[in-house]
Design goal:
This protein has about 190 residues and is mainly beta. The protein has a single domain, classed as PEBP-like (Phosphatidylethanolamine-binding Protein). The chain contains 2 helices and 10 strands, in the order H-E-E-E-E-E-E-E-E-E-H-E. The strands form 3 sheets. A 5-stranded antiparallel sheet has the order 8-6-5-9-10. It has a 3-stranded antiparallel sheet with strand order 1-4-7, with no helix packed on it. The longest helix is centred in the C-terminal third of the chain and has 11 residues. The chain is globular.
């Protein structure tokens, strides 16, 4: 008798049950940002010396883990010269589980382009909504990490005025998966 399953299959003496299709990999993509590529001026901030369009990019995702009850999107620049804290550019929580993307321009301050039930928290610019890249002149290009979290809860129940740090803590405590898209942006002058 042959005990090695591979040899049994090759010998035609055993049939292995077909496994369910492998789960899709959780992915975050954008038609506006090439992974690792330069973020367009349309997405850059308009203020603090920057003259971009401050339009949030379109985002699309697929392959969320089983059990996902909501999503959270956190956009962070780890290279910002803040003493190690980086810079929060966009925080969206309570995105309904059935959502598979955000349209270009969804990051309006008033939240009017977000899916019903989702909300945006104040960024390090001091207001909710999307705040695009605006690194200091002369710095090497900064990285901008768009990270989508699949959460095991339908709502985070954040208190009014919650900080990015509190949101990040609760997002990570409830995450069952995450997908990241990184773009770069720099200013020569």
């Amino acid at each position: 008798m042959i005990f090695n399953p591979l040899i049994q299959v090759l010998a035609g003496r055993a049939r292995l049950p077909l496994a369910d299709a492998a789960p899709m990999r959780f992915r975050l993509t954008s038609p506006d940002i090439v992974p690792g590529g330069t973020i367009a001026d349309e997405q850059a901030y308009d203020g603090f010396g920057c003259t971009g369009g401050n339009v949030s990019p379109a985002l699309e995702w697929s392959g969320a883990p089983a059990g996902t009850q909501s999503f959270a999107l956190l956009v962070h620049d780890p290279d910002a010269p803040t003493g190690g804290a980086g810079w929060w550019h966009w925080l969206v929580v309570d995105i309904p589980a059935g959502t598979s993307g955000l349209p270009k321009g969804a990051g309006k301050i008033d939240g009017s382009r977000l899916p019903a039930g989702a909300s945006s928290l104040a960024t390090d610019y001091g207001v909710p909504g999307y705040g695009g890249p605006c690194p200091p002149v002369g710095d090497a290009a900064h990285r901008y990490n768009f990270t989508l979290y699949a959460l095991k809860v339908a709502r985070l129940e954040l208190p009014k005025g919650a900080t990015a740090s509190l949101a990040g803590y609760l997002v990570n405590a409830n995450a069952i998966g995450k997908a990241t898209l990184t773009g770069t942006y720099g200013r020569a002058r």
